[in-house]
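<discrete_fold_record>
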Amino acid sequence: MKKIMNADSDVVEEMLSGYLSAYSRYYESLPDNRHGILLKNRRKDKVSLLIGGGSGHEPLFAGFVGEGLADAAACGNIFASPNPQLIYETAQAVNQGKGVLFIYGCYAGDNMNFDMAEELCEFDDIPTAHIRVWDDCASAPKERIEDRRGIAGDVYVIKIAGAACLNWGKQKLNLAWASMANRGLNGHKCRPQASLSKDYILKSKLKWLFKAAMKWLCL
């Protein structure tokens, strides 16, 4: 796959800068950090929804900030969690007095950094809650469901949470989150933007792999 980019280290910063420039009528960023994407004209009478995680999974996470979706996104570097200070400052910016709900995939870095950000919010008396999406049934058995990663289920939980936060419909949100299970299948290795690896899985094998994956899918 051909890539259009300048320096590897600037990919996320330039991507978010371009995103904000193209859609400035909808979005703004934290004053000194483009990695905190905020929805303009946010509703004032609701629980705020903040999502986040590593970049490289576009349109997650900035692409799911919008009316009826998330109020803000904290975007880390490629495959890296946003740092606690960024998450905390983003939560401060969108808090409307009714608290902030964090949604993120269940990865060690995200778990640690969002937990630290919640502690920082407590010092400012900002109520918080979090949902860790752990829908990847290939990464751990059902009896260790809390060890599963978050993959495509993020999308559905974010969309449902966006509606739930309008009236804090926590019961329906928890039901959706607890019922989520997915299995991922990729045609080539996951690799950072600087990698030149060309180790692909032939398209002819994808159909067979997909069928095998479905047999293993455990809800």
The CA atoms of residues 56 and 90 lie 20 Å apart. The helical segments are 11-22, 84-94, 108-123, 153-167, 170-178, 203-216. The radius of gyration is 18 Å. The longest strand covers residues 48-55.
